[in-house]
Amino acid sequence: MKSHNFSLVYYEVLQGRGALVFSDKGLTNLILPYSKKEEFELEFRKKFSGFSKCKVVGFSNEKNCLIRSLLNYFEGQKIKFNYVLDLRGFSEFERKVYNTVSSIPYGELRSYKWVADKIDKSGAYRAVGNVLAKNPIPIVIPCHRIVKNDGKIGGWSGKEGWKRKLLKLEGLRIEN
After folding, report:
1. What is the distance between the alpha carbons of residues 156 and 142, in angstroms, rounded to a whole number?
2. Is residue 54 annotated as part of the catalytic site, yes or no?
3. Quick one: which of 119, 169, 120 has its CA closest to 144?
4. What are the φ/ψ torsions at residue 68 (nearest 5 degrees)?
5. Angstrom distance (rounded) from CA 171 to CA 66
6. Is residue 31 within a helix (H) or strand (E), and if so which, with residue range?
7. For 126-176, how does the pLDDT look when each residue is reduced to its tens digit (9 = 90+)?
8. Which of 19, 70, 134, 140 is 20 to 30 A removed from 10 (C-alpha atoms)?
């Protein structure tokens, strides 16, 4: 990746500091908030070592709208993210999974099997789980709304404990 093709926008919410990474085509990555600056910087370096020369930009109208939606989401407001995602570099299967998961409404759950069925790949629910485990844009691509067929929480791409926090924020309680 050429770092000059990407821009970085930080956001701050009660839960801490996070970041969004944009290409010229749309949103490519979201880092969930960290309450400790050192943890955030470690995560950023781990995920984006190639972004050392990434330019930090101000809020354009389009980016400002996304930031405002994200801030409102973390305050518990019912938000439907509607932002252009840059999913270049992902396979057709991965893009189908991410687009399908993006259609799941706030406060609702679906299973890995549901996603597989929806993209006409019945039986590929483990492959769906593997794709979601690499989701670079959690919350916007709401992989936290995907649970196991038995209703248990399952894994996800974000920080430990955050899947349950996000579900709780949306008014959902999951056993596990």
Report:
1. 10
2. no
3. 169
4. -60, -45
5. 22
6. strand 27-34
7. 999 999 999 999 999 999 999 998 888 888 877 778 999 999 999 998 776
8. 134
The residues facing 29 across adjacent strands are 21
Radius of gyration for the chain, computed over Cα atoms and rounded to the nearest angstrom: 16
- Contacts (Cβ under 8 Å, ≥6 apart) of 71: 11, 13
Rounded distance between C-alpha atoms, residue 55 and residue 126, angstroms: 37
29, 1 in Cβ contact below 8 A? no
Query: Residue type at 122?
Result: S
Cβ partners under 8 Å of residue 155, min gap 6:
129, 133, 163
Q: How much is the pTM?
A: 0.87
**Active-site residue identified among 143, 147, 167, 169:** 143
User: DSSP labels for 71-120?
Assistant: HHHHTT--------B--TTS-HHHHHHHHHHHTSPTT--EEHHHHHHHTT
Q: Which residues on adjacent β-strands are paired with residue 17?
A: 12, 34
- Enter the tokens of residue 30: 């979201």
Residue 12 β-bridge partners: 17
